[in-house]
Design goal:
Layout: H1 9-17, H2 22-34, H3 42-50, H4 68-78, H5 86-92, H6 98-111, H7 117-124, H8 145-155, H9 167-175, H10 183-197, H11 200-209, H12 215-228, H13 234-239, H14 244-256, H15 270-282
């Protein structure tokens, strides 16, 4: 099997078209998403690859997961902002492969596809005791709850027709996971609840996780706070015992949530000046 990654868009597309080398197809799908390829063949080829099923790559590749090309295709499609991907990703959301469901949910959240809300809510509806229960013999849960919860926050309240979805079922489902035994699941639930309700209590819960004993949990809470743009978290983010690179990403997320930032006349507010200074101190 070929090693390495494609060097340019044309090569990546050729790698994805061919059927002989699974490793090339795997890396090509990743590359096209990572580089935000806008070639006309990219999305159709990724959609075709999304339906591919097969065992993992050879042990020498260092990649051991089922349906590796389909999973990478699902991840790539979320980065390309093309509505053609929504229907096939919704189909992938019903796959028996929980890793593919996870990748599809994250991408549907990135694409802002409200059609995904119902299927995700149905899969989470059984609660922490079923959907959120450990999968026997693995470290995974029965459903990829973290990705599902995060997608719900990313999708917001709006329905496909522009109306507002019913708040109660959505908030009830998210609320069922705020006491999950795994802190990463709690972090995902807090993140989405903060995005949807703007209630400070959920930001406070995320900040509390910045003091967790496990570095992995502190990292997740940092990134979740950055996504929400909840600015009261800035001092705690800057002082978190974690890599400066992650703290910078989180603080940048707070700055980028300014509603005026994309306007030509934008200039930072005093609060944003403080955020920028905190970022400078981490460099």
């Amino acid at each position: 099997m070929s090693q390495g990654t494609p060097l340019n868009e044309a090569q990546a597309l050729d790698w994805l078209r061919q059927q002989e080398d699974l490793g090339q197809r795997y890396y090509a799908a990743w590359w096209l998403g990572r580089m935000r390829s806008s070639h006309g063949d990219t999305v159709p080829l990724l959609i075709q690859s999304l339906s591919e099923r097969g065992s993992g790559l050879a042990p020498t590749s260092g990649i051991d997961e089922p349906n590796p090309v389909a999973r990478n295709a699902a991840r790539a499609l979320g980065k390309l902002a093309d509505p053609q991907a929504i229907a096939p990703l919704l189909e992938a959301l019903e796959s028996s492969d929980d890793g593919l469901r996870e990748a599809a949910a994250r991408s549907l959240g990135q694409l802002g596809a409200p059609q995904a809300r119902g299927p995700i809510l149905r899969r989470l509806a059984s609660g922490p005791g079923v959907a959120g229960a450990p999968r026997p013999g693995t470290s995974r849960l029965m459903e990829p709850c973290e990705a599902f919860l995060e997608a719900l926050g990313a999708l917001g309240w709006e329905e496909e027709d522009g109306s507002t979805t019913d708040h109660k079922p959505l908030l009830a489902t998210l609320g069922a996971y705020v006491n999950h035994e795994r802190p990463l699941i709690r972090s995902a639930a807090y993140r989405s609840l903060l995005q949807l309700t703007q209630e400070d209590c959920w930001g406070d819960q995320l900040v509390a996780l910045l003091h967790h004993d496990e570095l992995q949990v502190r990292r997740a809470a940092l990134l979740d706070l950055g996504v929400t743009g909840w600015r009261p978290a800035a001092p705690a983010i800057a002082q978190t015992l974690a890599e400066n690179s992650l703290k910078l990403i989180a603080l940048r997320g707070l700055v980028e949530h300014s509603p005026l930032r994309n306007q030509a006349s934008w200039s930072p507010s005093p609060e944003e000046v403080e955020l920028l200074a905190a970022m400078d101190n981490l460099l």
